[in-house]
Amino acid sequence: MPTPESLPQNAGTSSSYAFFIKTHHFLFFDVICLRTYIEVHSHQPMANQAINGRDEVNAMSTVDVDFEAALAPVLQQAIASARAEGLPYAGSVSPVQAWELVQSGQAVLVDVRTAEERKFVGQVQGSLHVAWATGTSLNRNPRFARELAALVSKQPKPDDHPTVVLLLCRSGKRSALAAQEAAKAGLACVFNVSEGFEGELDAAQQRGHADGWRFHGLPWLQD
Known about the structure:
There is one protein chain. This protein is α/β, with parallel strands linked by helices. 35% of the residues lie in helices and 9% in strands. Residues 103-209 form the Rhodanese domain.
């Protein structure tokens, strides 16, 4: 087992994670994301409390009913599913659905991975970029919500309605947290792209064999 000194100086985690860094460099990303996800969902109170005897979160509460009704059916379904599950953000769409929405001009795709991931792993051509966290140790970007809001404000707004934003990360974990942060900041039409760019790890500790943007044969490029 590697010693704690083998960890990056700013990793901010225990030496037990060193094994993951050594065996699979980017696996460390998802360890941090999963840990953060658990902490957020274990300790952070829901936005709206005890409606009809249960907690309920309405991440689309700032969007008028007429606009929600005008959204693509897949987005309406995502919203309904998110509400049923009590998710603190608008909902999720699959990579295939995300690409169809982007191609039809109904949404913009924002990559929330690090600049290093985009450069060395690959990216979707034409996607925008706001990092949820930076560097190999995934230092949280404290300006994420502000940077996303500024980026979205520059996008065309159909009929003065909010721009629909789809967030993409490596496997769907960071983008879910990013969508939650966006909803807290008042960006209601921000959705998560499930599966992410590379997909989840399989039994062989490999990605891209069962799900993810690249697995579905969707367009991407590499520097």
